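Postdoc handover notes: sequence design on the structure in folder B. Input tokens:
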């Protein structure tokens, strides 16, 4: 573990320290499991009781939890503990790597990677084991491709991106025209364009466009096992959790969040700053910011079936009510 005290953390990241700055920190840990050498955080008053009982050496808290934190020991006050903790993890990783004498990635292509002679890879980019970069593809400065990433023909990735293992960029979109009892393939002639500072989780797939490019704008964060269909556009700084499926030609605005397992149907438009709950089926466009949920509540199966049967009758009941109102 790195040899770190609270003074070191404050010097690197700022914050308002209350308590002994010489306290040694040997771990970062969740509030409920933190031991006497750990640093943790709490970002919401609903976790106040957990703060009281935590055994952490120090806790990062917002201003409205100062009094509670003071009763238990050392603490750091900042406006956004979650953001502070995120930056702390980055700083901590660098400290660990320095202690272990691990080299910081300086760019280069792993010997097992396959890079087409007509692809362009910036010298500062890092291409991991067993990656494939096809003809005409481009990888920007300081971008990292972890193991087994595939970057298809003519697809581009911007600067400072991170693609985790198994990501596939630029597979064919799902396009077939019916021809009697068979299907005729529609050649996918577009590519994928990924902006700067994008992170894409393991085994996520982003399909190439049919005629124009599929576009992932700057700052987008995609979790593991996401499917992004052809000609989708995802706006800047949008974050999407695991197992989401986005059908072709959907347009998702900037600064949105989509919870895990949600489905967005094709050709829909979602406005900026829309937040979609996990498991929601988005079946129509959303034209104003807000939090949207479309989840039928979990229940015992017998109750669920009765409720589902009732739902089927809603339209008929609605028509009866309208008739009664018009006759009144």
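Designed sequence:
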């Amino acid at each position: 573990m790195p040899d770190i005290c609270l003074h070191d953390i404050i010097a690197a990241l700022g914050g308002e320290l209350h308590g002994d700055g010489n306290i040694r920190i040997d771990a970062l840990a969740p509030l409920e499991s933190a031991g006497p050498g750990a640093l943790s955080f709490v970002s919401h008053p609903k976790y106040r009781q957990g703060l009281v009982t935590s055994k952490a050496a120090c806790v990062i808290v917002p201003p409205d939890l100062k009094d509670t934190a003071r009763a238990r020991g050392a603490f750091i006050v900042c406006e956004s503990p979650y953001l502070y903790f995120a930056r702390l993890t980055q700083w901590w990783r660098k400290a660990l790597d320095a202690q272990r004498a691990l080299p910081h990635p300086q760019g280069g292509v792993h010997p097992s990677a396959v890079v087409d002679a007509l692809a362009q890879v910036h010298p500062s980019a890092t291409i991991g084991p067993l990656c494939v970069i096809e003809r005409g593809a481009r990888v920007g400065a300081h971008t990292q491709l972890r193991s087994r990433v595939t970057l298809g023909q003519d697809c581009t990735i911007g600067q400072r991106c991170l693609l985790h293992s198994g990501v596939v960029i630029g597979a064919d979109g799902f396009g077939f025209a019916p021809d009697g009892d068979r299907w005729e393939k529609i050649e996918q002639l577009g590519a994928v364009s990924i902006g700067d500072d994008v992170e894409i989780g393991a085994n996520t797939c982003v399909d190439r466009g049919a005629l124009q490019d599929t576009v992932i704008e700057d700052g987008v964060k995609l979790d593991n096992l996401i499917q992004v269909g052809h000609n989708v556009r995802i706006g800047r700084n949008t974050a999407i959790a695991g197992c989401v499926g986005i059908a072709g030609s959907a347009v998702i605005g900037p600064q949105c969040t989509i919870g895990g397992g949600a489905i967005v149907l094709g050709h829909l438009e979602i406005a900026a700053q829309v937040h979609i709950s996990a498991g929601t089926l988005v079946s129509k466009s959303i034209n104003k910011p807000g939090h949207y949920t479309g989840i039928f509540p979990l229940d015992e199966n017998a109750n669920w079936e009765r409720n589902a049967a009732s739902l089927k009758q809603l339209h008929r009941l609605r028509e009866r009510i309208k008739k009664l109102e018009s006759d009144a």
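Context for whoever picks this up: The chain has six helices and 36 strands. Don't rerun without checking with the PI first.
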